[in-house]
Specification:
The protein is of the alpha+beta class. Helices cover about 45% and strands about 20% of the residues. β2 and β3 (about 55-60) form a beta hairpin. The longest helix has 15 residues, at about 190-205.
Length: about 200
């Protein structure tokens, strides 16, 4: 018979949605990190969880049509690595362009800015993530999506931002997030301020 803490962990996971991620800290209200680790590893061995990276677990997403487990994306794993280490990250460079829909090219290396230390993370042979330290000033109200847009505006050249791309960027945010972005941009360059003003026309449309 399983002890009380083990059953509570299993019950929490059973009641969660497919695709949900877990880290050891998610169970500190139930038991210690070591006990949680033992139980989660048992669930991995039983096929009830997957472990895409050290210390990160996921309740599998099942493709019902073809009956297979859908693997987590590199972006999803990167976010969980940051959560595990209590750090902020936001996509940058080609990674941001792809996630925002401005580029169809899947990056070979996923790049993020972070308030944590710079490091290169090899998730698997074909999944590499780079975190580049940028401090905390670049993060907009703890909003990674707004920060990603702001970084993209700095990354792109002005003549690369035609009306079509501005519309795509604008479709990624609502009015409240646009106001946050606009206020944050007051301390930025004139180029970025002008682009964000232009984005406002599409949000109002």
């Amino acid at each position: 018979m399983k002890d009380n803490s083990s059953e509570k962990i299993r019950r929490r996971i059973r009641s969660s949605k497919q695709g949900r991620f877990f880290i050891l800290n998610d169970f500190l209200d139930i038991t210690s990190r070591n006990t949680a680790k033992v139980e989660l590893n048992k669930l991995v061995n039983e096929g009830k969880l997957i472990r895409p990276y050290n210390g990160i677990y996921q309740k599998p997403k099942i493709n019902k049509k073809f009956n297979f487990k859908v693997p987590p994306t590199t972006h999803e794993i990167a976010r969980q690595i940051a959560r595990k280490n209590n750090q902020q990250i936001a996509p940058a460079g080609d990674t941001a362009l792809n996630l925002l829909g401005l580029s169809t090219q899947v990056p070979a290396i996923y790049e993020y800015i972070t308030n944590g230390p710079s490091r290169k993370i090899k998730i698997s042979r074909n999944q590499i993530v780079i975190f580049k330290h940028s401090g905390t000033k670049k993060f907009i109200n703890d909003n990674a999506d707004n920060t990603m847009i702001f970084e993209t505006l700095h990354f792109l050249k002005f003549d690369e931002l035609d009306d079509h791309k501005l519309k795509i960027l604008s479709n990624n945010i609502d009015r409240n997030r646009y106001n946050q972005l606009s206020n944050f941009a007051k301390g930025s360059t004139e180029k970025v301020r002008n682009i964000i003003d232009k984005m406002g026309e599409y949000i109002n449309a």
